[in-house]
Amino acid sequence: MPDTFDMETRDSRLHILQQVMDAAALRHRVIAQNVANVNTPGYRRQEVVFEAEMARALAGTGGPAAVNVKPYVVVADGPERVDGNTVDLNREMNDLNKNFLLYEAAAQIITSRVTSLKAAIAGH
């Protein structure tokens, strides 16, 4: 029975990592949109809400298997330039770098897990 529980826990962790990667992919698209509109008068910066929602879900009593958090996009508050645009290119580049690292870390963990599963199936 412990093996079954362990397998379910690992599968749910992979599901969580998949959700992290989905959120990072959405965030990449949103950051790209923000950067593309850096000179658009009146454009309001957007951002992805995910990590706080995931933390709340994981803190709940359902455990990792019950977690199914979908990222969503919101218009972010921030300082406005004279033209009404709220995009700060330095912030976007910083967010892009952090997002890239998050995505890469999740991808490496998933790759490692899949490699381990393949080796176990092959009997190595």
UniProtKB/TrEMBL annotation:
Its main location: other. Keywords: Bacterial flagellum, Cell projection, Cilium, Flagellum. One of its GO terms (biological process) is bacterial-type flagellum-dependent swarming motility. Structural component of flagellum, the bacterial motility apparatus. Part of the rod structure of flagellar basal body. Residues 22-44 form the Flagellar basal body rod protein N-terminal domain. It comes from Frigoriglobus tundricola. Belongs to the flagella basal body rod proteins family. The basal body constitutes a major portion of the flagellar organelle and consists of a number of rings mounted on a central rod. The keyword Membrane does not apply. The keyword Cell inner membrane does not apply. Pfam families: Flg_bb_rod. InterPro entries: Flag_bb_rod_N, FlgB. This is Flagellar basal body rod protein FlgB. One of its GO terms (cellular component) is bacterial-type flagellum basal body, rod. It is found in: Bacterial flagellum basal body.
